[in-house]
Specification:
- Helices cover 38% and strands 12% of the residues.
- The chain has 369 residues and is α/β, with parallel strands linked by helices.
- It has one domain: 3-Layer(aba) Sandwich (Rossmann fold).
- The strands form 3 sheets. Strands 5-9-8-10-11 form a 5-stranded mixed beta sheet, with helices on both faces. A 4-stranded parallel beta sheet has the order 2-1-3-4. Strands 6-7 form a two-stranded antiparallel ribbon.
- Helix 7 packs antiparallel against helix 8, helix 8 packs parallel to helix 12 and helix 10 crosses helix 11.
Amino acid sequence: MHSRPRHPFGISLTVSLLAILGLLLPGMAAADKPRIVATILPIHSIVAALGEDAFDVELLVPATASPHGYSMRPSEARRLQNADMVVWVGPDLETFLERPLRRAGDREIISLMDDLDLDLKPTREGGVWEHHHDHGDDDHGHGDHDHDHNGHGHSHDDGHSDDNHSHNGHGHNGHDHNHDHGHHDEAHGHDHDHHHGDYDAHIWLSPAVVRAITEQLADKLMQWDPERAEIVEANRDALLERINDLDGRLAEQLEPVRDQAFIVFHDAYQYFEQHYGLNSAGSISIDPSRSPGPRRISELRERVADGDVVCLFTEPQFRPALAETVAEGTDTRLGVLDPVGAELEPGPDAWFELMQNMADGFAGCLGKE
């Protein structure tokens, strides 16, 4: 009686298949993660920190580009099309996204300015600002106003009670952005700026606002994907702790230069200025894509000639020629501020690096003897 031969080939084939499956499964699990696209680096950083180990979070606009008037490449349009969720600041900033998002189908879209309850600042005119900073307006954001969003018990004081412009209440999930933001009717050839919208869109430059974004966006993510809610909740708590720690350190760093007057290249900084009580005297422009007229330049030169403007800040994305013209013939120093993190590596740490760089820029230029 003959015994059946063994088949080592069959055994080795089984082992090989198991090994291949072992290699594929982690990739398959990763592919199952919902894909979130965040438009600009500082917002991507917050979303990436909240979604760490839960979602694949991708950046849409390269850090080196300005979101003002950006034009997407085909690969970026595909990235947007393949996303399960899109997080953007809103049409007051990323105007190029209004039309693509109207055609976005049933994917989840969150406009931070429209869909969250945030303390927004009214848009300012460019040029010289008559008012000066008020040390009591924000009081560094630590003690006057309690943000307890949705029962989490995270009490974070932002002190913005004098200027609470809630922009919530649209009652949608971001699919229908047909309301008028006031930036479509843009006349040209004037010395004054035409507002993008009623509110300043540079919301990520206030730790108080970013705390509110962190709490409310975490809630939306947990409702959107309950299976990953535990991960998001832990990420939220860790992120809030980091924000509070950074906020305290920056307030201490900036305290010695709060009285020093400065002018900025474009009006992107009032959230940062007001949160830390800094003394901004004006801006060359509110829209960096447009050159100011001769009257604006003359007005700013007169302000600088008064002698109390310590610093004039440019930005790395734009040529400093206008700032140099305004400061010419005076002792006003030139500094650099980067409100979007043009030179930073995208990721959960980027917002913290951006804010530290901002504080270093202000303290370094305003604090020089």
